[in-house]
């Protein structure tokens, strides 16, 4: 940050001789003398009076010494601040959060289970649940957002990004609070008969598709494979039932979420870039160790 010759100058001024300064700097007296001569030549100033009794500062040397000490201190502080900023950047994870996929579930897990919760800082980056744009958010992981947290069980998403499972959400059913089923603590599958159930388009066979295959009597309407607020609005406006998650309870103020006696769950986890940088790679490894220890 500053001219290193100033460091030598400050030590010589404090020691009062080239020999003593050389001992403190672990160099030869000739090297110290060379540095001082070079500094004086560069500044066009005589900094020391050289006598048989030793060295003494000139008026110019006294003036330079005051400023040199300040510059050395400020330079050291600037370097420390830069190191702190670099360390913060190296340990900051940009975590995406949306209305339907908030990051709280992960942050609660991290704060409860991480051995050193403060080892990483989290910058919350909001994004839209827009069904038409969600794939572009996943595709651009690593640019503005490092990780997403949610029930990203789409095969297309898993082709675009890597996935670390964290847990599972219960599948539930949402409905109007005026619905005849809204007062029940838990629904039975028989309660769904004779009602239209809106479900996301199934990309590939899975646990829920197997359930539907086993219950062909259910009136199922497939919606877009990715939910957004319009999905919940449509449920409220139509009076139909909507397959949802317990984590989405309260997402729409005009709908209630009721659990169902069927033991169907959907995994949720972290989505991150296929080729993450070392910062994200290290973070995911730490999360993996936390999960294995649970």
Short summary:
Belongs to the LysR transcriptional regulatory family. With 294 residues, the chain is an alpha/beta fold.
Describe what you observe in this structure.
With 294 residues, the protein is of the alpha/beta class. It folds into two domains: 5-82, Arc Repressor Mutant, subunit A (Orthogonal Bundle), CATH 1.10.10; 92-288, 3-Layer(aba) Sandwich (D-Maltodextrin-Binding Protein, domain 2), CATH 3.40.190.10. The protein has helices at 5-15, 18-25, 29-43, 59-90, 104-113, 134-139, 155-160, 207-214, 229-238, 278-293; strands at 48-51, 54-57, 92-97, 121-126, 147-150, 161-175, 196-200, 219-223, 241-245, 256-259, 265-273. Strand 7 (196-200), helix 8 and strand 8 (219-223) form a beta-alpha-beta unit. The protein starts with a helix and ends with a helix. The model has no long low-confidence stretch (mean pLDDT 89).
Give keywords.
294 residues, alpha/beta, Arc Repressor Mutant, subunit A, D-Maltodextrin-Binding Protein, domain 2, 2 domains, 9-stranded mixed β-sheet, two-stranded antiparallel ribbon, 10 helices, 11 strands
